[in-house]
Amino acid sequence: MTLSIILLVVLHLLAAVAWVGGMLFAHMALRPSVMELEPPVRLALWSRVFTRFFRLVWASVAILLVSGHALLAIGVGAGSHAVLTMAALGWVMAALFAYLYFRPWARLRAALAEADIPRAAAAQNGIRRIVATNLTLGVIVCALGGMARYLG
To answer: pTM to 2 decimals?
Structure first.
């Protein structure tokens, strides 16, 4: 295995860990923990968390798409149904994140700027549903990545 392949695989794995691990933490640990907070405080906290996390996600998405397609282009995983499924699901996840960022996240920020807590809560709920979906897809993609060698 050449150094460039190793570097691409490491970058790809680190970006996946950052994105999927961040979603897992947010959905399974942070979300239940902040539910005890009053809605204005909880939503303001989510806004601060998302501001930082979404920068990381944008970088992760870019690294995943570039490194994944670079690996495919040089023949890593060629002909593997698991790898092709990973690539397709990766694009679905990226599209879901872009939608989340430009629609519900924009709505949450606008609602908080106007102190419209019910509208902010509705936007946050939309984000939660998309994160849950992307988390599920991300776990599937990670499993496929780990088993691709054996699945073909």
So the answer is: 0.93
